[in-house]
Each structure stands twice: as C-alpha cells, then as structure tokens.
Amino acid sequence: MKSKIIIFNILPLTLFALILAVSALVLYEVKKNPSNQNLINSQLIGKKIPTIKIEKIDFFQQKVKDQTLNIDKYKNNFFAVNFFASWCAPCRVEAPLIEELSKLIPVVGIAYKDKVKNTKVFLEDYGNPYDQIGLDDFGKIAIDWGVYGVPETFIVNTDGKIIYRHAGPLLYNVFKFEVLPLIRKK
Question: pTM to 2 decimals?
Fold first, then answer.
C-alpha cells in the first residue's frame, strides 16, 4: 500500500521536473540564437512557385469562378506572396509592413480560409496593399505552398523561385534586416 502512495506522489513530481527541464533547454536555445525564432525551413526555397490555379477575388462579384490570379504578369520581376486572413490578429499587426513592402515590389495576397465579405472589411480597415487577391477557401493552396498558418510571406525572385519565407507576422526587424536586403540585391 505504501509503495502505491509513493509512486503516486513521485510520478507527478518526476513529470513536472522533466517538463521544467525541457522548457529550460528550449528557452536557453532561443536566447542563445534569437534569430531562429521564426525560421521554419521550407521545402520550396530555391524551387519554382507551385503552379496552382488560385481563384481571384472580385469584391463586386464576390469571387470569380472562371478567373484566376495571373502570376505570369510578374515574370522576370521580384514579387511577394502573403497568406493572410481577416480573423488573424497577427495579420493586423503586419498590415503596415505589407503596405511598405508593396511600395517596393508587387504583393499578391491570398485570403486563407476566409469569407470574401470579411476579407473586404479587413482590407477596408487595414488597407489593401495587394496587387491581386486570391481566395483559398479550404486551405489547399496553403498546403501546396507549405504554409503552417497565417500570416506567412514568401519572396519570389525574377526566375519565379521562392528565395525567402517568413512564418508569422512580418515585423520591423525582419523587414529591415532580412527582407529589404533581399529586395535590394535584385
């Protein structure tokens, strides 16, 4: 009987100590190398963008079933692809920097699992920096692009290859020290 009581008392303490040790190790690694916090490797870096038809949003007709985004118009130019959603709080945070990015290169927006009317309200409230906007109703396009969640931003070079991916909201330091140098190299 005493051995059962000891096991029931020691087991939670052991689990708590293990969780604490793993958490401390993760925090140590993040503090040691903070630049890797939003770095998620992408299988698409250095590869051509996925050739998927993406329904274009026309805010007057809601969505246009027979019309798709024209990615070919960016041939031989740098451009960005930004996955966003009206329900995404971090998308609101990054909106001013997506606007700044759109002043340097065209930005294609892809509304992820969103309703057209909600996307329209979001863009009215936070500005519309997008050259074109596509709709990813069910998240299939995001899967093909390897998106983990919104927001995510990809930079595509003049050869149509993805050269950069940022998971999470685009913040000032990332914009200044990672994105701008890539664009200036073009």
Answer: 0.75
CATH hierarchy code of domain 55-185:
3.40.30.10
Tokens of 114: 């969103």
Lowest-confidence segment of 44-48, 57-61, 173-177 by average pLDDT? 57-61
Strands 132-136 and 55-58: antiparallel
Question: Which residue(s) pair with 108 in the sheet?
Answer: 81, 132
Query: What is the tens place of the pLDDT at every residue in 165-186?
Result: 999 999 999 999 999 999 988 6
Domain boundaries of the chain, sorted by first residue:
2-36, 55-185
How is residue 73 annotated by DSSP?
A: G
Report the distance separating Cα 105 and Cα 127, nearest Å: 16
Residue 141 buriedness (CB in 10 A; 0-12 / 13-18 / 19+) = buried
Closest of 51, 74, 50 to residue 132, by C-alpha: 74
**For residue 157, which phi and psi values (nearest 5 degrees)?**
-85, -175
> Of 121, 136, 120, 118, which is closest to residue 56 (Cα–Cα)?
136
Average pLDDT of span 111-135: 94
* Cα angle 20-25-29, degrees, rounded to a multiple of 5: 150
